[in-house]
Amino acid sequence: MKYFLLIIASAMLFYPLENKIKSEIIFGSKSVEFRKEKDSLIIYGNIKDNVGDSFKYVNVNIQNSNLKIKVNENGDYKVNVFDLLNKKDELIIQFSFLGFKTEKRNVKKELFNRNNILEINIKMKEEITIIECPNG
């Protein structure tokens, strides 16, 4: 019986995946599945406000590109930056919202895991601006 289990385990190790590596990412109580594709570098994550609640109206973009990134109602986002990182060595992903400090993260190809996935979670911090009145 031991030899039989060993043979099955060995066979499973060498089973060809044919570029269909599956990674499961859990957002809160939801599970999101990414499939490794030939031409993909996926950045994903969650955005929260300063008290830890999901932040759904944050502007997320990549500096010096026209790529717009949508944030869902749970504060989750996902973007494929394969084409952009083939043109440049480094990208800057920017998270901004009026009244909150803009957060920036540098992204290089070396930061991605073996499935070409990079997780960046952000906690936005309130920015206090004091406006003084010149006449008093």
UniProtKB/TrEMBL annotation:
Protein name (Swiss-Prot/TrEMBL): Carboxypeptidase-like regulatory domain-containing protein
Organism: Polaribacter sejongensis
